[in-house]
Amino acid sequence: MASVHKIIVIVGFISLFHSAFSAAQHRSYLRISSQEFTTLPLDIIIQAVSSLFAVMWGVLNVSGKLREIPAAAELNTVKWETQRNLPSFYIFNHRGRALADDFVPTPSKGELENLE
């Protein structure tokens, strides 16, 4: 049964490319005949839409049964106490240090070069 769906996908893609080629050919014909473009012919639109639906239906059937993605799978192994522990957001060099009574500012790079 899967081979039938693969054939539907292939035929749908070929039909979709054919409708795109037909649309481009129709535009070039209008340009050559100096006519104004208003809309595509109805047969090209029907072919494009039906082949698009055929491709979508075939791909959904070829891909197999859809499964649910367990969003909390990796959270099942994490303990509750460490769940909000985000070490990448730790900041040790911030301005709150200047509010401490025993704060001694670290010398800048320029000051360190002058000391040498």
UniProtKB/TrEMBL annotation:
<keyword id="KW-0967">Endosome</keyword>
<feature type="transmembrane region" description="Helical">
    <location>
        <begin position="38"/>
        <end position="60"/>
    </location>
</feature>
<comment type="subunit">
    <text>Component of the ER membrane protein complex (EMC).</text>
</comment>
<dbReference type="GO" id="GO:0031901">
    <property type="term" value="C:early endosome membrane"/>
</dbReference>
<keyword id="KW-0333">Golgi apparatus</keyword>
<dbReference type="GO" id="GO:0000139">
    <property type="term" value="C:Golgi membrane"/>
</dbReference>
<dbReference type="GO" id="GO:0072546">
    <property type="term" value="C:EMC complex"/>
</dbReference>
<keyword id="KW-0813">Transport</keyword>
<comment type="similarity">
    <text>Belongs to the membrane magnesium transporter (TC 1.A.67) family.</text>
</comment>
<dbReference type="GO" id="GO:0005886">
    <property type="term" value="C:plasma membrane"/>
</dbReference>
<keyword id="KW-0472">Membrane</keyword>
<dbReference type="GO" id="GO:0022890">
    <property type="term" value="F:inorganic cation transmembrane transporter activity"/>
</dbReference>
<dbReference type="InterPro" id="IPR018937">
    <property type="entry name" value="MMgT"/>
</dbReference>
<protein>
    <recommendedName>
        <fullName>Membrane magnesium transporter</fullName>
    </recommendedName>
</protein>
<keyword id="KW-0812">Transmembrane</keyword>
<keyword id="KW-1133">Transmembrane helix</keyword>
<keyword id="KW-0460">Magnesium</keyword>
<keyword id="KW-0256">Endoplasmic reticulum</keyword>
<dbReference type="Pfam" id="PF10270">
    <property type="entry name" value="MMgT"/>
</dbReference>
<comment type="function">
    <text>Part of the endoplasmic reticulum membrane protein complex (EMC) that enables the energy-independent insertion into endoplasmic reticulum membranes of newly synthesized membrane proteins. May be involved in Mg(2+) transport.</text>
</comment>
